[in-house]
Amino acid sequence: MSVARNTGNILFNDVKKLTFVPCKIGDVFEGTWSTHWFRVELKVPDRWVHEKREVHFVWNSQSEAMIYREDGKPLQGLAGEKNNNLRDCFVLFRENRSNYTQGIFYVELVCTDLGGNFNNGNMCDGLNMHKRCTLEECHIATFNREAWDLYWDFKVIYESAKQLDTSKESRADQALLIGNEIVNTCVPKDKSTYAPSRAVARRFFATKNPGSQHTVYAVGHCHIDMAWLWPFSETRRKGGRSWSSQTELMKQYEPFSFCASSSGLYEWVEHDYPKLFEEIKQYVVSGNQKFFPVGGSYLEFDGYLPSGESMARQMLYGQRFFKHHFGKYCNTFFLPDTFGYSAQLPQIIKKAGMRYFLTQKLSWSRYNKFPHSSFNWKGIDGTSVLTHFPPADNYCSQGHLDEVLKSQTNFKDKGRSNVSLMLFGIGDGGGGPLPQHIEQLERMKDVDGIPKVVLGKSVDDFFDALNTHVLCVDTCLLYTS
Fold first, then answer.
1. DSSP 3-state assignment of 7?
2. Which residues partner with 257 through β-bridges?
3. Confidence tier at 108 by pLDDT (50, 70, 90)
4. Residue 438 host element (H or E)
5. Could you list the active site residues?
6. Which of 14, 72, 416, 421 is most open to solvent, judged by the fewest CB atoms within 10 Å of its CB?
7. Crossing angle of helices 435-443/232-252, nearest 10°?
């Protein structure tokens, strides 16, 4: 392993011109948003390949980073934060999914956290311009997929025992009994007990839902604030790190779908990471589409103050980009993180070729709680657009059971509809879905006592299902209060 320090924010074409010197675990790198490139040569032991073991590349530099193939193809973003944002593994070898057994890789380390760099981790305490990152881990390791699967089986069952309503049904008690049996069956240091423990877990998941149960469409999402707590130059890199992580998940998980807005960010990825953009394009236009552009606008703009002409221009340039590169326009206007919405928007949305509108920011209102989750929003000229506010009240769910349950209990249009949308994945500073988000949601697809979870569909698929229901009409300016 070797490093080129303080290279500046360069593209991969210039990386091989750098001078690399040896480095080691424990080395420190300093300077907020400074860039350091690593050259890593690795080989998976032949015995591991012969035994078909799953092998991961493990990297933790207490910062954001991205691993590249030797030809410059971004493979995956990495995040070394010791919290729920941790993304420290890249799958090198997994039968029928990944086949990197030896070669040279490059890692771009950027001295930044996902959420910006602040003194004491608090934005109110000011910007920390002397961010320090320590290279804690760089190695390859085998991965026990059976132990991983058992952990997430138990996690969902454990959460069911805690959170399902014990006053109305016996599923919480069943979860408690089955969880206890798993604990008694599993001996952590004895791998032979993992399969019997998973067999116990399957008894809980085998009881299916009735047909009338509420259905939650779960779609991966990665909100990136284009200019908030970092410069534009860092937003461009966040796009590469975040979206490469999602194309990697698409190789590892089926079904899994991901949506992303803002043609401006797509433009930056196309310019800075052309190989990644071509891969994204394949996931958009293929018969088994997994990557779904949404929004139809250049950016997720403010919906309250700009003029109608400004909004129309946003959609003109956005839709033009999506049509040119992907062969189709967006159907859903997507504005999850804006605090207000002009009553002229329904007309502009429809004129831009879109039929649906999604946001959730009105859930932040303290004084005037909006009465609907799904409704037809009528604008000042009489144009209506089908609208949905995800009842989990966020755009970055983590795939937890409590969020799935809230998608049902907080849904405000029961009786008229029984479908809602959940956007899951790390957001604001980018990142997107993690493997554990998908693992939990996959186990909730059809389990008695839990809303049905649908994976692998698009935001448009959700709205198409919603469009079959008769909903209320609301005519007003929408704003957070």
1. coil
2. none
3. very high
4. helix 435-443
5. 337
6. 14
7. 40
Distance (Å, whole) CA 218 – CA 401: 12
| Structure confidence at residue 475 (pLDDT) | 87
Q: Among 402, 434, 393, which residue's Cα sits nearest to residue 84?
A: 434
d(CA 252, CA 230): 31
Q: Report how far apart, in Å, the C-alpha atoms of 208 and of each of 66, 167, 169, 205, 338 are.
A: 40, 20, 14, 7, 38
Long-range contacts of 451-454 (CB under 8 A, 24+ apart): 451/209, 451/213, 451/214, 451/215, 451/216, 451/404, 451/405, 451/407, 451/408, 452/209, 452/213, 452/214, 452/215, 452/216, 453/215, 453/216, 453/218, 453/404, 454/215, 454/216, 454/217, 454/218
CA angle 69, 75, 77 (to 5 degrees): 130
Tokens of 198: 């998973």
Q: Which residue has the tokens 């956290």?
A: 113
State the Cα torsion 69-80-132-232 to the nearest 10°.
70
Name the token pair of 393. Answer: 């009240």
DSSP helix/strand/coil, 184: helix
What is the DSSP code (8-state) at residue 15?
G
Eight-class DSSP state of 209: P
Contact present, 245 and 79 (Cβ < 8 Å): no
Q: Report whether 249 contacts 399 (CB < 8 A).
A: no
Query: Judging by DSSP bridges, how do beta strands 215-221 and 98-99 pair with one another?
Result: unpaired
Provide the pLDDT confidence category of residue 368 given band limits of 50, 70 and 90: confident
The letter for the amino acid at 473 is V
Quote the CA–CA distance of 446 and 452 in Å, as a whole number.
5
Please choose, from the candidates 206, 152, 225, the residue with its C-alpha nearest in 3D space to the C-alpha of residue 437.
152
Beta bridge partners of 479: 340
Distance CA 318, CA 297 (A): 4
Identify which of 421, 407, 415 has the alpha carbon closest to the alpha carbon of residue 465. 421
**Tens digit of each residue's pLDDT (9 = 90 or more) over 238-268:** 999 999 999 999 999 999 999 999 999 999 9
Instruction: Indicate the pairing of strand 215-221 with strand 452-454.
Output: parallel
Q: CA 45, CA 51: separation in Å to the nearest integer?
A: 10
pLDDT beyond 70 at 284: yes
Distance from C-alpha of 398 to C-alpha of 400, rounded to nearest angstrom: 6
> pLDDT of 125-175, one tens digit each?
999 989 999 999 999 999 999 999 999 999 999 999 999 988 767 899 999
* Residue closest to 358 by CA, chosen among 338, 378, 343, 342: 338
**CA-to-CA distance for 23 and 397, rounded, in angstroms?**
38
